[in-house]
Write a structure and sequence with these properties.
366 residues; alpha+beta; globular; five-stranded antiparallel sheet; homotetramer; 22% strand; 30% helix; Chorismate synthase, AroC fold; four-stranded antiparallel sheet; 10 helices
Chain lengths: 366, 366, 366, 366
Amino acid sequence: MAGSTLGNLFRISTWGESHGPALGVVIDGCPAGLALSEEDIQSYLDRRRPGQSQITTSRKEADQVEILSGIFEGRTTGTHISLLVRNTSQISRDYSEIASYYRPGHADYTFDQKYGFRDYRGGGRSSGRETIGRVAAGAIACKSLRELGVEVCAYTRSIGPIAADLTRFEAQAIRETRTAMPDREADARAVAYLEEAIKKLDSVGGVMECRVTGVPAGIGDPVFGKLDAALARATMSIGAVKAVEIGDGVQVSARYGSENNDAFRMEQGQVVKATNHAGGILGGISDGSDILVRAHVKPTPSIYAPQQTVNQSGEEIDIQIRGRHDPIIVPRAVVVLECMTALTLLDAMMTNMCCRMDSLTEFYRK
Amino acid sequence: MAGSTLGNLFRISTWGESHGPALGVVIDGCPAGLALSEEDIQSYLDRRRPGQSQITTSRKEADQVEILSGIFEGRTTGTHISLLVRNTSQISRDYSEIASYYRPGHADYTFDQKYGFRDYRGGGRSSGRETIGRVAAGAIACKSLRELGVEVCAYTRSIGPIAADLTRFEAQAIRETRTAMPDREADARAVAYLEEAIKKLDSVGGVMECRVTGVPAGIGDPVFGKLDAALARATMSIGAVKAVEIGDGVQVSARYGSENNDAFRMEQGQVVKATNHAGGILGGISDGSDILVRAHVKPTPSIYAPQQTVNQSGEEIDIQIRGRHDPIIVPRAVVVLECMTALTLLDAMMTNMCCRMDSLTEFYRK
Amino acid sequence: MAGSTLGNLFRISTWGESHGPALGVVIDGCPAGLALSEEDIQSYLDRRRPGQSQITTSRKEADQVEILSGIFEGRTTGTHISLLVRNTSQISRDYSEIASYYRPGHADYTFDQKYGFRDYRGGGRSSGRETIGRVAAGAIACKSLRELGVEVCAYTRSIGPIAADLTRFEAQAIRETRTAMPDREADARAVAYLEEAIKKLDSVGGVMECRVTGVPAGIGDPVFGKLDAALARATMSIGAVKAVEIGDGVQVSARYGSENNDAFRMEQGQVVKATNHAGGILGGISDGSDILVRAHVKPTPSIYAPQQTVNQSGEEIDIQIRGRHDPIIVPRAVVVLECMTALTLLDAMMTNMCCRMDSLTEFYRK
Amino acid sequence: MAGSTLGNLFRISTWGESHGPALGVVIDGCPAGLALSEEDIQSYLDRRRPGQSQITTSRKEADQVEILSGIFEGRTTGTHISLLVRNTSQISRDYSEIASYYRPGHADYTFDQKYGFRDYRGGGRSSGRETIGRVAAGAIACKSLRELGVEVCAYTRSIGPIAADLTRFEAQAIRETRTAMPDREADARAVAYLEEAIKKLDSVGGVMECRVTGVPAGIGDPVFGKLDAALARATMSIGAVKAVEIGDGVQVSARYGSENNDAFRMEQGQVVKATNHAGGILGGISDGSDILVRAHVKPTPSIYAPQQTVNQSGEEIDIQIRGRHDPIIVPRAVVVLECMTALTLLDAMMTNMCCRMDSLTEFYRK
């Protein structure tokens, strides 16, 4: 567990609730000298901002980031970076009903059991708005990684039964389609599917995927510090994710070794793998191929259809949830997966810099 | 990453290589006063011991554990527990061939890239024998959890395409079948399937599952400290695991919210869930239902059939791996999953004890 | 090092610079259910606020705290608490001179060497204003400890050669004297001594002391987790502290064992110590007596008298520092020591709750 | 607290009791490629070995180290290093008396209060033999630092009232004198003083000092990660240390700023300090001057003279401790201070490698 901090050398602590005054993040260990502006961060926050199409919540939030520390004359100073986003669109309404019962699929019951009471306004700390801090910090990790030649790209792989066809992969489409799919044709079908679900007062699940290119071989540690273990933790920590796959993931369990092993080959004087079933990680350490992470996301638990539950007095009741909810989590969570992957990789790449004695000698003796 | 230590309050550091003199683990933070003998630990090690049937490696190891510290007069003292297992069956042979090339699916290449060289004898630190330390520590976690009313039980869910039928679940079968399946009929078919693969000089993958009963609601932390995130990390850190599912896992992504939400009901004055798609965790915190973790394991990368690879001189070569290897990892890894789950849960339950001010007051004021 | 976060279960991350828009702290792991208002925190911040007498800097800051998360209906929720204090009194002036050279006794040179450049406005992150986050978090730790019967009280022990006489100890005086001494007579002499130093454009050092009452025996861990080791780290992390003592501290090195050992006695059925040379800690674990920590603080490095130094071009130059500086650090740092001690103790007391198996059993089985 | 592990990137976990079968340490994160043999470690262990002169305990222990993992073909592999030392000289005797009461100045009472019972044989985990793991790991840190041009040298500064005169400093004397003083004349007087104390059945305290040369400017982190804070924690974690000083330490509190500030000067094109009152650390970060740490050690609590204490039945009793005890801790603890300093510095230097973005770019882009 180790508290609710993420990372070892590039370490973040997020904070804030759905209906509090603000949310944010403190970053400890960001390397000094990175050029950084609020725009660098804002462009990531804009990708998770609500209210952008009819398939997301109608809650309108500007989600403007404010840099409070750690930047001087346009560059990171190496000390703590504090980022803050004000909540502006909390609708003042009566929460007494929602306070009294446990919404199915939500953390209402578990928070009450753990802490004895909960901030019930919009889910409090368990709200999806919690990811603002992740994305703000992740934007910095992504920018840092790009300086190192590493690109992190997440997208919607499928929505309900509608899957993107990666042979039609178009990077531009991820930012332009309402579903964040890289395949415009699948997007159109997925939107139709979603509209049908919305009509039925229902919600749907989906799959998101993240591909990382440019990671050198050798990143990650053996045993508990495996890179895939760190990615699994980071990915599963995103609310609503119920499964994480690396590379071919669940498919490997039905295969023969002769099918699943990736042969090593030489290409332009470099060791490469003929295939990439492994998803870029062998023995917990990157092998130089693309790293592939997949996350299975459950349908939004807040649905407008009637449901059965119990209230705090222990009575079984029927409820109908109101409010403003996304009918699907995936399109806005794609950037969260991208950020969590980037945070994990940057931390691992920083850790990796002192794994050989000759690197230390070169650093301190030159 | 945070180095290669696992856990925060119940913290373990494992060590040792396949062909070194010994392997072991140091445990920091085990509560004082737990009755503990070498037998308690040995019974877990015996479940992962090699050489027990024709579907495991022929390497014979007694894997006898020795307690070196932290126990006094049969009880844990609260200070560091050191456990050691001597390697006894390293066959002295010529490793120069294996040293020269990179076995597909193994960590040979990635270790070389990371560290500049590697202990190539039997995989060194990346060998499956590394899990001895996990199981030795996990045995203590399991015993501690039983004192708290928590039972952790892992088993083989499927081997290749052969799945156990859980309607025929028989706990005793897990310890008695060669596959660690809880279903003797599926076991028989799986063994036949494995024998066929062995004949073809191939290996196969499988799925293992872990069910935890008796965990109270309220365990786990929000955001990055989610219980499922910690379980995902612990599970993915087991060599050869390529996917982790919680509860219904990958299936949730194709569902409607109305199908996937678990309704709350009352049962004997207790809040319960009518179904358990969530696998016992909501918002990263246990909900009182059974916790269900599933791990997809790739086929053993060491196969006797010819393969293509490259050597350290950058030449493409054909190889045929010799030595003693398991044709499937799953049956011996089931106890590792059980232990990793137990280590994660115990740490989370210890952390949970100070999450309410009134618990502190009661502890210190009474 | 472990990054710049403090604590394990009650964990804080502070942020902010002297001349940035704001400073603050994020607290992870504060137990749920503690009644908490901004006033609780403000009263601590007021004790370190500048501009309160002629022996402190003339910089005027309201240092008003704003609670941004983690409190709901007047109580802590158990999730991240974010606290923010706006800077309001930065004087807009020309920093180009101070930017060009290294002030003796300050971190200018070391920050430049570490990070390649620095935020030179008022010391940036190395400014004493950095302690705002510590005090804001420490106020919460102090309040929590009071609920557990633990009182933390720091005061000025000496200023230059003028020492408080503890036989005249008056708790009220700590808050009322300009020096934070518990002895009004020594305070008068110390103020005279300070005024003399101010006239000479000089600064002076001093000693602060913290006494903790009500800590039960058994807090702290063996080996590296010793309570005195944690206190030493926390105390030495306060800027300008150059020595830390526990109990009789430096005096013990000149003693015989027969003089220094504290005999155990019985008092009202309780084990007590006849003396307390040990300062309440034996073997790194609290023994039930008062805990005593002492910190030696160097004179403020910013003095108005001329000094020699070098500039960034490598030229030896003479400088005269201007600006607003405290002629002594101690009176305003006393509350920082109190807070650092409280943060360390609360974390240790939370950790201690799961050190016995029977505590776990009682917690989960009752 | 963070458990009883030390270090972040170079992390150690020690284990073992005075009268258990063995003691040892596991090191996680030692850089790969360091040439390392058992001799490298043994030479450090020999410096803390008991039974070497009449002023140390008569317990004879060979303290032979065994490397169990992490070394391959004479070099560290980058994976966990496990080191073990067998206890061989436990005298089998009746511990029932010592088990029944609390020795003054020892951890008997605090362990009992914390854990409910204790391993009373020779102090169990609180024995000075616990430092074997520290020294074994520290030997590796020292060797690593030497590769980076850093030399760590600890010695006895004073014993009771007898202080070494550093104008007579002779490095060779540290290894050859019985007191580990660098001044043979003071050594002679100190031995006489000790012999007198032994005759009186008493013990004495002393001061040890550690000087580190060759540390580049820029090591350490701001705020809680200050290098002096880490050194203070590491030093105070050594049993019997009651005060830690950096540079001029306790003397600074009685000075004026004009006396205490170290002027910067140029010397051969390098920025240097004209004096070193700061002890090589400014703002928590190394400034390129020698780092100086001083530790005040209490007299050995085990004395043969009669003492008063209480037993577990709550009766006040008179005791006379038997057994084999050092009349002074300092001479054998000097190497422990050296090792703790080295472990802290190496960890800080590893952490420092990724504090600038251009270091990352150079590492990954070249």
